[in-house]
Amino acid sequence: MRNSASTFAQGVDLSLYIIVGISLVFLIGITAVMIYFVFRYNKKRNPVATNIEGSNLLEVLWTAIPTLLVVVMFYYGWMGFKPMRSVPDGAMEVKAYGQMWKFSFEYPDGRITDSLVVPLGKPVKVNLVSRDVLHSFYIPAFRMKEDMVPGKNNFMWFEATKTGRYDILCAEYCGQLHSYMLSSVTVLPESEYAQWLASAPNLADEHPGLTLLKQNACLTCHSQDGSKIIGPSFRGLYGKTEIVETDGKEREVLADDEYIARSIREPNADVVKGYMKGMMVSYANVLNDEQIAHIIDYLKTLK
Ligand SMILES: [Cu+2]
């Protein structure tokens, strides 16, 4: 089986196996009977159609057997699901925020992080909060998925059974950059967790411009260390003279506030020489003037 790292994984996997198993038995059984009937009851062998009328035995069987199978599926599904909704007393609580397009986590001491870190073998309750639209908080290795619904307090809880780092994904299409909504949960032995908690950086202290760059996945294409990815690096960009292509003609521009704001709103207007046109979509409807100002302010710090 795939990576599994929480106490719930077994129950979810078991009910999945049972449902897939029953489905397979039917798939193979129905296909075999169908093939057999095609031969056994074709017109040459069986010129007069065979009809069965009024068989109480058959009617009881095809009512009772499917009912029983559906009850079996429900039973295992329910047994896997029930413990997910009753949080043990004394569970550690963390708040998870979903917003277009990132997750962030708030620890009881007010610390904000962009990935989740939890201790091994301890129940953790995650309160799920959406800041804008519907998101779905999904940890495949824990076999857990729960919606983040704006205006509604939702939660999940789990107990991690294996140390390691596991993906957290958004499983509800939430807009343009939904697929960039990734995070992770790291399970640490308790002593290491305590150490982490004492020294974890607090994102509340982060530059709002950097938060916006992360949130809008800008750093996927623009590095902060001077390396060339899909777009030009942000390091040393502000105040630099760039050679750009505007309407097919090369010209020199100064990377100032105006130029950067225009590049965010109309990325294909001035394309820096050596880079491809059409690689970036316009953020004119995503970022407002204030947010763009925060980003420019942050770029100024990347000397
Ligand atoms: Cu989302």
What keyword list fits this structure?
Cytochrome Bc1 Complex, Chain D, domain 2, 5-stranded mixed beta sheet, Helix Hairpins, 6 helices, 13 strands, 303 residues, Immunoglobulin-like, alpha+beta, binds copper (II) ion, 32% helix
Secondary structure topology:
Layout: H1 9-40, H2 56-81, E1 92-99, E2 102-106, E3 112-113, E4 116-119, E5 123-130, E6 135-139, E7 144-148, E8 154-159, E9 164-170, E10 182-188, H3 190-199, H4 208-215, E11 241-246, E12 249-254, H5 257-265, E13 270-272, H6 289-301
Helix pairs in contact: 1-2, 4-6
Bound molecules: copper (II) ion (CU).
Explain what this protein looks like in three dimensions.
This protein has three domains: 77 residues, Helix Hairpins (Orthogonal Bundle); 114 residues, Sandwich (Immunoglobulin-like); 94 residues, Cytochrome Bc1 Complex, Chain D, domain 2 (Orthogonal Bundle). It contains six helices and 13 strands. The two termini are 48 Å apart. The chain binds copper (II) ion. The site of copper (II) ion (CU) has 7 residues, from loops.
Distance between the termini: 48 Å
CATH architecture of the largest domain: Sandwich
The proportion of residues forming helix, as a percent range, comes to 25-40%
**For the residues shown, what is the average pLDDT?**
90
Q: What ligand molecules are bound, each kind once? A: copper (II) ion
CATH superfamily of the largest domain: Cupredoxins -  blue copper proteins
- Name of the CATH class of the largest domain: Mainly Beta
**Which strand order does the major sheet show?**
3-2-1-5-8
- Tell me the strand percentage band: 15-25%
Please count the helical segments: 6
